[in-house]
Design brief:
The protein is mostly helical. The chain contains eight helices and two strands. A two-stranded antiparallel sheet has the order 1-2. It starts with a helix and ends with a helix.
């Protein structure tokens, strides 16, 4: 069952990677549209975690995230204003329409979703090295996810943080880092990066942050 789940995870990544890499390479507006669709899916998932179903708060999280994403490249100050207004708007809607969960968690969902999305817009728009940096970041995150799952399930062993996450193991933690560095170095070879020590070090840091967010 472990190998079957791991194979499914890898195959899913192989299927999803080409379209994601394509929109990342071609940039705006396709990459921004992709992020807006992603924001809508994350808004649905966030509200579900908060105990709510499809409703006005979820729609507003997706809407304000979309506004911030499209404002970020040319008018970053308006993107910040959109998030600030969105926090108030989502909180008010969660109160007004009697959402089951705590309204403040619905509002925080906007920060949880919009900030990473506009951060990716910033990375992608980072001059001539924007696409390369984004590809490296995606490689590190994907490598961490697949490696942590695979090593954790196959090797097992002591738990990383049993009180927070009962399934995360130290084997998965280090396996995720190893896989992330491996894929990052592959990207480095593709773009003829010279300083692999720095590349590996930064990749380790990003991998650790990624795993902390997944606990």
């Amino acid at each position: 069952m472990t190998w079957s789940n791991l194979q499914l995870r890898i195959l899913s990544g192989l299927v999803l990677a080409p379209p994601v890499l394509a929109v990342a390479y071609f940039g705006s507006p396709w990459f921004n549209i992709f992020l807006c669709v992603l924001a809508a899916l994350l808004a649905w998932e966030w509200e579900r975690m908060c105990g709510n179903t499809f409703g006005v708060p979820m729609v507003k999280i997706a809407l304000w995230s979309t506004i911030a994403i499209f404002m970020m490249p040319d008018r970053p100050q308006f993107a910040g204003a959109a998030i600030a207004l969105g926090l108030v708007s989502v909180w008010w809607s969660a109160n007004r329409f009697n959402a089951k969960g705590d309204p403040k968690w619905s509002a925080l969902g906007l920060l949880y979703i919009a900030v990473p999305c506009i951060s990716l817009v910033i990375v992608r728009g980072g001059g001539i090295q924007g696409p390369e940096t984004l590809l490296w970041l995606l490689a590190v995150v994907w490598g961490t996810d697949i490696g942590a799952y695979g090593f954790g399930r196959i090797i097992g062993g002591p738990l990383l943080a049993p009180r927070i996450s009962p399934r995360k193991t130290w084997a998965g933690f280090f396996g995720g880092i190893l896989s992330a560095v491996g894929l990052a170095c592959a990207v480095g070879l593709l773009y003829e990066i010279s300083n692999f020590v720095m590349l590996a070090g930064v990749s380790v840091g990003v991998s650790i942050i990624s795993q902390m967010g997944d606990l």
